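Fold it.
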Amino acid sequence: MKSYFLFLGLFLFCSIGYSQKSIKINGITYHQKKQKVFLKDERIFTEYVVYKKIKSKAQFTYEYLRKRNDSIFVKGNFRVKKNMIITVENYYFSDKTDSIVRTAKQLKNGSIQFVDMSRYKNGKSVYYFKNP
């Protein structure tokens, strides 16, 4: 009977640890958490992804998906180049913005520092902001 509970406990511990998604950037592990929000007035579902280190506040986030029924309004993704994190959000059905690109830099202690943001329309930058 003891071995049964030991096996069950070990199985649950392994499955909980395995189900938590994480990524490693330059040797530092960030845990991923997808969160969903329903915007009642617009009847739109929004999903965004938050990355954070263990026992710390959110390090960076991006909008993963915004949709209503079968229409997708925003779809996002991110990529890593050396110590730079680049998030891209593509906007559909928008007459002001095609996409927004945000760049952040990973510091040596693992924290993330915002660098700049560009908003694009028809392939041209229409707004640019750089962190001072």
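The helical segments are 2-19.
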